[in-house]
Amino acid sequence: MNKYLAIAIGNTRIKAVIFGGDRQILEEYAFTHDQLPILETKLVDRDFADIAIASVVPDLLTIWHNLPQTQIIKTSDVPLHGLYATMGCDRALAAYGAGEVYGYPVLVIDAGTAITLTGIDADKALLGGAIVAGLRSQFWSLYQNTAALPDVHIPETLPNRWGMDTPNSIQAGIAHIFLSGLQAYITDWRSQFPLGRVILTGGDGDRLESWGLRVDAIDPLLVFWGIWHCCRKTKNPEKIKGDHF
């Protein structure tokens, strides 16, 4: 069975999956940027029929970037309408993957280094979205930019809305304001698209769902579903032969 490598380079981590046939994921990997040599060592001797790379960090190159079977996916390659030039390809791919797997219209909430919201309508066109610093960025920024506030961890469970000391107040403020803001976007989305799906992804997706964010599904692999479907519709058919991707 031919195997295909897909790599997504985000702001914080590098993720990779190995596909078999029919969108079957055989292996998954996730490393920080400085751990790229570990990923390369694990996979350097493997033969892949095709390779696809989507990156929001142009200067970070892998050993697979210049191989003849490698396709570098850009935002302009994602077959959604109305995408703007500066939109990150990972965000576009996650939205496309969600729509192809769960149906359109779809709202994607990607809870990573940044939290992004991306709405795609029934005609596969960008409705719009929003971007805000992610949970870890919020806590870290507060600690870094104040003289006396402590470095507080993200709570595992939703804290009481009203904190009784400084650490609890920080946790309560960030958690509840985040949830309220995200839920307001979801409510507005559902008012426009009552049958539209809301899909949550990203490293903090599980945490937000456990805090009570009301979504239709959580799927950490949306970018890779987007890569899979994007490569099947590639504008460079000579890159993808037979049933590749």
UniProtKB/TrEMBL annotation:
A Pfam family found in this protein is Pan_kinase
Q: Which GO terms describe its molecular function?
A: ATP binding; metal ion binding; pantothenate kinase activity
- Report the pathway entry: Cofactor biosynthesis; coenzyme A biosynthesis; CoA from (R)-pantothenate: step 1/5
Compartment(s) of residence: Cytoplasm
Q: Which residues bind ATP?
A: A8, I9, G10, N11, T12, R13, I14, K15, T113
| Cofactor binding notes | A monovalent cation. Ammonium or potassium.
Catalytic activity reads: (R)-pantothenate + ATP = (R)-4'-phosphopantothenate + ADP + H(+)
Record flagged with keyword Cytoplasm: yes
The protein depicted here goes by the name Type III pantothenate kinase
